[in-house]
UniProtKB/TrEMBL annotation:
This is Beta-lactamase family protein. It comes from Pseudosulfitobacter koreensis. Residues 15-396 form the Beta-lactamase-related domain. Pfam families: Beta-lactamase. Coiled coil: none annotated. InterPro entries: Beta-lactam-related (IPR001466), Beta-lactam/transpept-like (IPR012338), Diverse_Enzym_Activities (IPR050789).
Amino acid sequence: MPTLDETRLERIKPWMQGYVDERKFAGSSVLVQQAGQEVFYHDTGFRDVAGGTSFARDTVARIYSMTKPVTSLALMMLVEEGRIHLDAPLSAVLPEFKDMHALVPGATSMDQVERAPVPTLHQTVTHTAGFSYPFNPGVLPRAMEAAKLLFGPSEGSLEEVTRRLAQMPLAFQPGTRWEYSVGIDVIGRVVEVLSGQSLDAFFQTRIFDPLGMTETGFAVPQDALDRFASLYTPLASGAMALNNAQTKSADTLRCVDVAEKSPFRAPRTLSGGGGLVGTIDDYMRFCEALRTGGQSLVSPATLRFMMANHLPGEIADMGPSSFAEQPMTGMGFGIGGSTVLNPARTRTPSSVGDFSWGGMASTFFWIDPVHDLSVVFFTQLSPSSSYPARPELKALIHGALP
């Protein structure tokens, strides 16, 4: 039975309203379930400030990197079926990765490389393969930015973009560091090749349909455009320009994507690392499938394996210099998401084993196995490092626990 204190949960409402009143978020929603029962839901603010439309329960939002656990689950479904094993080299599925090089330590240009082993699927899905993101610091990220290699919605087919990535060196030797990366986009292409289906078809038939996720996909349907939230940023240089994050706009809610003109209406790139849009109830169905043991998608044992720590220690032990959606200390990383090892070291009220991840537009979810909790937070402000909403929300909900 639910044990959360309803009076203390009410504290979430003025906290959410404060973010709207201070023009930090245009609008937001929070959904909490415990032991499979809904114990809290609230929304406030606007999905589009200019139009004055409310941020409601049926709002369709960009979940960006909260796509990663979905793609990771797809990979584990194929692993469970014996199609591939996690120590297989990427080149066993994607031959374009058969001849790999990595930048030498301290490299200052893209031609300073040395031979490297082919990353394994396990390294690729845990961000230890040597891939990166354009918004990280470093030589490879700058080259990716110049090449417009983000796996954004308009870059080409997943096959084309993955082949372009394979022509670049790795940022470091596989297995030696942790760096947030497009690795799970590459895993999306692995899913396509192994299954013989496009990534959207695999997601639809193998995950979304079985879970009843009717509002989630890579494209916003025409009949849902009026519910698709606008995207905002406080940055002057662009919503993904984290290397210039100090350059703030005069408007803390500068609109950078609206429904009518959004590339999410008809995306060319099926980004397994950041391409999905959907509703808060749909994502809660996914979280509940992970919390309760897969609902026949995979076995409960496979999910426990996914949500365990797959690193030698904390993320921080592997020297990340990258942007990421979570703290680094006290935190490990599993298959597609982070897992709490030591709540005190994360400096955020948590339970050991909390499994979570977030998206660039400040969305967030976590699953607490100790208290049977699933929590999903939706808003649409990029980048997610703008405000400390995630640890604040965790503290609010932990404050309602006995």
